[in-house]
Amino acid sequence: MTKRKLGKKPARHDPRTYRLAAPLHYRLPQPPAAVNWAPNAVWPMWANDRLGCCTQVSVASAILTWTGAALTPITLAETQVIANYSAESGYVPGVPSTDQGGVELDVLARWCREGYERPGQTRDYLTAYGAVDPTDTASVNRAIAMLGGLYIGLQLPEFACEGDGDWVVDPSFDNRIAGGHAVWIHGYDSEWLYLNTWGAARRMSWSFFTTYCDEAYGLVSRQNWTTLRGVSPDEETPDDLVTELRASGATS
């Protein structure tokens, strides 16, 4: 079995984090029934078989999804993912005690503020991000459809760390919590959410998502916006969306 590491520290819900529900509802009142931004993507392991770098694997997954949807996929090298993990979370290569994982909000804040390594240019910068309620299915769908995916955290049960099957809620499985894990969701339909983890595509059921997801964020990327503009009914710019996001206030 492929080795798999977890690395998401406990969710920290900051009341200053913007809400995404209102801006997305305004711009996309009726989300499409199904979306998949990366149906044929090839997902590297990105060192997540030996390091707890899943928060940065999800950053790399977002970049690959957005650029791949524009027919010019950009895949971060494993060395770049590790460098980004080191820069944000303090990992020192060769010193196992420093492999402590990351806090999703810290990862996103640094992406906006200082950027991360990316092939072909000096840095990749995130424009903004906002919290999405995992139990609000319509907002989850809107974020994936309009923004090209959803950056989430899970408290992953033991069975989900083994094998290659779908993630579903089943009382016969080993549902003891193994730890926190960050993943990038790049699609959905009425039955499944589509994601990648540990170097492979995977599906999770909606009930699994609402049971085990403890944080979710929609990301606004000005660098990649041309990939996604056709989804917005009003062809809005990222600056318009960021203005609406800030006007919506922070989470309660």
Weakly predicted, low-confidence segments: 230-234
SSE order: HEHHHEEEHEEEEHEHH
Largest β-sheet summary: 7 strands, antiparallel
Number of DSSP E strands: 9
Radius of gyration: 17 Å
The separation of the N and C termini measures: 42 Å
Which class do the helix and strand fractions yield?
A: alpha+beta
Query: Helicity, in percent?
Result: 25-40%
Mean pLDDT: 91
Strand content: 15-25%
Describe this structure as you would to a colleague.
The relative contact order is 0.24. Mean pLDDT is 91; it is low at 230-234. The chain is built from 8 helices and 9 strands. The longest helix has 16 residues, at 54-69. The strands form 2 sheets. Strands 1, 4, 5, 6, 7, 8 and 9 form a 7-stranded antiparallel beta sheet that branches. By secondary structure, the protein is α+β, with helices and mostly antiparallel strands.
Brief descriptors of the model:
single chain, 252 residues, alpha+beta, seven-stranded antiparallel β-sheet, two-stranded antiparallel sheet, 9 strands, 31% helix, 21% strand
Secondary-structure blueprint:
Layout: H1 21-27, E1 35-36, H2 54-69, H3 78-89, H4 104-113, E2 116-118, E3 121-124, E4 128-131, H5 137-147, E5 150-157, E6 177-188, E7 192-197, E8 200-205, H6 206-212, E9 213-220, H7 225-228, H8 238-247
Antiparallel strand pairs: 1-6, 2-3, 4-9, 5-6, 5-9, 6-7, 7-8
Helix pairs in contact: 2-3
